[in-house]
Amino acid sequence: MxxxxxxxxxxxxxxxxxxxxxxxxxRGVGLTEEQVLTVLRLxxxxxxxxxxxxxxxxxxWCGPEVEVEGIVSLKTGGCPEDCHFCSQSGRFPSxxxxxxxxxxxxxxAARQTADAGATEFCIVAAVxxxxxxxxxxxxxxxxxxxxxxxNIQIACSLGMLTQAQVDELVGMGxxxxxxxxxxxxxxxxxVVTTHSWEERWDTLRMVREAxxxxxxxxxxxxxxxDEQRAEFAVQLAELDPHEVPxxxxxxxxxxxxxxYEPIAGRDALRLVAAFRLAMPRTMLRFxxxxxxxxxxxxxxxxxxxGVNAIIVGNYLTNLGRPAQxxxxxxxxxxxxxxxxxxxx
Amino acid sequence: xxxVHCGLPEAEGDHPSCRGARAALEPPRFCPECARRMVVQVIxxxxxxxxxxxxxxxxxxxxxxxx
Lengths: 344, 67
Known about the structure:
Order of helices and strands of chain A: HHHEEHEHEHEHHEEHEHEHHEHH
Shape of chain A: globular
Shape of chain B: flat
Structural class of chain B: mainly beta
Largest sheet of chain A: 10 strands, mixed
Distance between the termini of chain B: 27 Å
Strand content of chain A: 5-15%
CATH topology of chain A: TIM Barrel
Number of strands of chain A: 10
Largest sheet of chain B: 3 strands, antiparallel
CATH architecture of chain A: Alpha-Beta Barrel
Strand order of the largest sheet of chain B: 1-2-3
Number of helices of chain A: 14
CATH superfamily of chain A: Aldolase class I
Radius of gyration of chain B: 12 Å
Largest interface: A-B, 38 and 27 residues
Order of helices and strands of chain B: EEE
Radius of gyration of chain A: 20 Å
CATH class of chain A: Alpha Beta
Oligomer: heterodimer
């Protein structure tokens, strides 16, 4: 970089962080797409300043508590969709075989999640949308979890929904629905061809109108540009979800993204902070891929850089680190875990 | 014996993609005895993997993922 360019860069850096302090921290107004892009292009030596500001924003607008969640796959593999990142698509030669979790297994997973101190348990299925069999299994599963004396909050992620299915889930007591937009609208056709970004948006609209909490995020590191990352952050802000899970691509064997390189740790941290500054009041959750992308130290930096929720334990088809390791990290960081009594 | 990540013989090749950090995030997918693709269920605190010929193995006793 030339000296002139460096000065320009320094000035832009100072400007965007100063602007963010006044706009986001003081007034609670998220960054614009252009501002997010500037943040994503900050020099490495400003990363700590960025993370510190994002942490201040999180503390001011969300508070110190961290929401802990566990997730489980009720129906694994054999999905008819072609999401290029996913090992559960039946269209790719992935080693993941189809499997259904039985009700005792679901109850056990919910118990393990509650015992780990989590207040959220998300039941996930690899489907385009739920059929009658799947909804029946979800209904039976939720009843069995409640009958076991477990009052953990239950969320679902079952693909695209009809209005009748939305209403049915509300009737089952599902309080939050996850349906990731996955990536920027402009990049989505490169990631999925069997359905559209707009179809996902429609499901989220119905979920919100029915009174369920909206959970929608995506995966970073799928070949999107910085511009598209900024676009995605702002599109999520426009959706205004209750929660945004941030995943970092784990290149899955047999998928079209098998050979992709995991995103660099410093870029992942920049993204965490940028998303926080775009969405000051939204729950921002560390989800899959953080172990590979960030490791222990990076995860701590992320928790001190805007993140205020975390998935503990294993994921749907991938392994995570033991829940206790994350709980110990939160204790070391003096971040209280959100209690179930706070959410009911 | 077969590699649980790719199903190829353990002694054949270096298995570079089966040894790295990414592979550490994967439960076993292939039976080490016969290389059949296993039915794997991941739950928050563990996993089970079932081979139609050689039965089920679980994460019990397998070292947990640490950095």
